[in-house]
Task: structure prediction
Amino acid sequence: GENVEQHPSTLSVQEGDSAVIKCTYSDSASNYFPWYKQELGKRPQLIIDIRSNVGEKKDQRIAVTLNKTAKHFSLHITETQPEDSAVYFCAASRRRDDKIIFGKGTRLHILP
Amino acid sequence: NAGVTQTPKFQVLKTGQSMTLQCAQDMNHEYMSWYRQDPGMGLRLIHYSVGAGITDQGEVPNGYNVSRSTTEDFPLRLLSAAPSQTSVYFCASCRDTSSYEQYFGPGTRLTVT
Result:
């Protein structure tokens, strides 16, 4: 079955700097890759996603890149702000009626 | 539109007790799932359902049962609670898993003593 690896488990960056979180997946049939943000004590919420027919997607300070050949995808956050402090999860799924598997998460700390 | 609701929010069980965690959604989503979240382990899939009458196992199904008799409801049953099942449980739903956002419920914090 699908396996999603996420790195690093913890990341600290200075406010205003960029943060990058990386994920790899094992199933070459996976075609949908969402990223979720979970603030302390709250439920996960989708922040950006990418499908396998696209190499990069941006939404303001957040971008996701996908390398299908290498089976990895990354989340990029630029100009980090205190409210970016949270746990971020990557995930992968194969098709509309299949399960979604999550990585173990990255705890991002934005340092003042 | 309430989204995804879960009850209870908190629960304490003794080892060996059984209970059902309730999950409901009012968005007419076909796909529903249960995850458990433990420190350092991320969100691990317990069971999922792609429609009424259809369920399947996820990554960590042992000790849990599910059923999906209606599109709206997807209860998770703990058969005989064990301390290893102490966790935060999230229910989630989406239209389908190929390109649609999963909406999560608020979670249930379960402690088994």
Q: What stands out?
A: Chain B has a mean pLDDT of 94.
